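Study this chain:
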Amino acid sequence: MVKSAKILYFFFILLITVSCNSEEGTFIKGKISNLEYPYILASYLSSDTLAIDTISADRSGHFKYTSTIDTLTTFSLYLNNYESAVVVFANEGEKLTVNGDAQLPDLIKVNGNEINDDLTTFKTENEDLLKQRGQLFINLQESVEFDTIRNQTLARHDELTKLNMLNHELTLSAEEFIKNNPAKLSSLIMINNFFMNSDNPGALERVLGYLQGDIAKSAYASSLKFYSEKMNRSAEGAKMPYFQLEDREEKKVYSHDFNGKYLLLSFISMSGVESRETVELLRHEYAEVNKDSVEFVTVYIDSDIYPDDYADNDSIPWIVIPEKRSWGADIVDNYNVQYIPYNILIAPDGNIKVRNIPSQGVADMIGNSSEDIVQ
């Protein structure tokens, strides 16, 4: 589960930073194959209001859409009932084309102005990597639909490892693009796409340093720099941010309760295969650690949607927090949790040791770290 609202927020900031004047409306047309529904939903910000239009598509996926805008606008075209989407950047008077496959949204090509053309060129140059990543997304989705926690754990782990490798290669390509185009608006968009949700705050800070000219001074760039500073406050090696939580028995749980101990913070959902898989894996890890020097805390961040009896019935032997404020909770924001499940390991000195640590590697990581301390 990803905080897509945060991504939209930065896109909306982009809308008010650049504008141009023209006398014509905006026309978007194209063809999207593998549409399961005969329509596309277009959303965009209009006068501080989120507008949503329905675009009809024929059996071949052809569509046409006209909109009246007077500034640079970000259109999100949602396909197959929000299963995938493509972003189109448009100014008044422009004629844009959109072509691709709904099942491979990262490869959908948008053309008609410099921003879209730059992004499409990047897609073309990295087509093989994007195809591989798109297929992995499909495979992972299919494994979620077949609820196979025990039988598919290793296969899913292998695919997630491949996905991380592909994302790393794409991030390197994105950084090269930004370095070569430091004054282009498309570079800001690339930073948002590839570095905003990264667990590497140093990379975000580095690519922001490449920006030059008016783009580097824009409100959008300033918002990215602010976010970079926020990431550094919860990065590996940083002091753990303070938290005050309340467990299922309404007992207060404070960050300083774990001074001198390893703390494994896990953020999960009360529903879904991946979160149930995480709980099962953490059970095995918890059985292997020294309870006198290690604590686990699991935060269910969607208990405002799902009842917390799932957590009770699961008989988790460590501290469980049903966070009623969900994605709006202070701990989620302060620890920069972008998706779930997500694990953070904190060392006895109170510093963040590992972000996004795999569930099946917690006990080994703690054991190896303890040996290093002894030596």
Residues 271 and 306 are 8 Å apart (CA to CA). The chain has three domains: 1-111, 126-232, 244-374. Confidence is low (pLDDT under 50) at residues 15-23, 147-151. The radius of gyration is 23 Å.
